[in-house]
Description:
Number of helices: 16
Order of helices and strands: HHHHHHHHHHHHHHHH
Distance between the termini: 26 Å
Radius of gyration: 22 Å
Amino acid sequence: MTNDFSKGKVWQNIIAQSVPLMLAQLVQLLYNVVDRVYIGHLPGADSMALTGIGLVFPLTTLIAAFTFLFGTGGAPLFSIARGAGEEQRAEKILGNTFSLLAGCSLFLFLFCYIFRRPVLYLFGAGDASYGYADAYLRIYLFGTPFAMLSTGLNGFINAQGFPKTGMMTTLMGAVLNLVLDPVFIFLLNMGVAGAALATILSQLVSCVWVLSFLAGKRAGLHIRKVNLKVDPGLAREITALGMSGFIMQGTNCLVQVVCNATLKNHGGDLYVGIMTVINSVREILSLPVSGLTSGSQPVLGFNYGAKRYDRVCQGIRFTAWLGILYTLLAWLAVISFPRMLLSVFTEDAAMLEAGTKALKLYFFGFFFMSFQFSGQSAFTALGYSRQAIFFSLLRKAVIVAPLTVILPTLGLGVDGVFWAEPISNCIGGLACFLTMYFVLYRKLKRQGGSLQGMQDST
């Protein structure tokens, strides 16, 4: 078996998986962030163009949610099957995940395209911002199959121990996006529509790369025609485990809708644009800890399948401590340079002035986010789907969404919207991590000690 994660130091295996994955996620992030940077500096558009793009976020997040449903559900099962030596089952998981992603992407494209106008107005669009939102969305949606297949299947490349190849999935597409964005937006004078066109062409390149690798000779386990017919039982396993990722992204969609509507009522279009920028900053600063925890999942899942519970515990500890250290440093950066971070996305004076305070509030106690990431990652990697689902719902749907509506009515105004995030990070993050520690980690530690004792006695 190639890429045996039960050998070597656990932290080195995790870093070897995580670093290329972080780079890949960074490049993936550039697809949207670069669009926002260029759009935020469109001549004469002021903050309205960013507001329009912010209104599109819930739909793009919904597409990401369905990608996570199948991608993050199939990849951990795939890793566990590899660790247990069940390669035929692993390939069947891969084939079924491909079919689920492909079918779902076509449905989402048709649904979102047909109903985009009423949905955008439901999400808080006004007559001025709708034009920018629709110009972007009606083109962006054509890339739905490419985005879902490339992102959803890339985890199967990483799970086989090819993180550099996984990194190339998004690297090629993002470089192309960086080149095409200024050409379409400014040179061809296409504005926000040009940003969307550059994005879907880049996603197409990434999709072709992923499919050619997983169907080619380099991969140890492949997409095979015989495995494309969806097995209802296996589909239930995939969706059950992926439900936590789906709910996490789905509740992000819910929170974005609630935030946009609440901000529009209490602060107007300006604050919808500010939240667009803050979301961009959050995505950038969350990326390393997200990459670290995602990179740990194949290692944790493989060792769990191989019954190396001591190594699973080592991986959880390493991931948690490194995540806490990084998020503390990221919080310090936000406190120290808020205006500089905002100025990357906009030159609008009003947005910079109001956004500085909002950014500091939103990121207060940012290190609590690392507890959510590490706890959620451990539950998902080891197949504890019910716990992963519960804590996905708890933080976003149960805590942050209601607080986003309630806090502004208690005299906090728009500040209440930004306070909702740190409160949910603290309560939800600690609840997830402590439950993982007492329910899962301590159990694995006892089992690891028992197995080691048996090996020593023999």
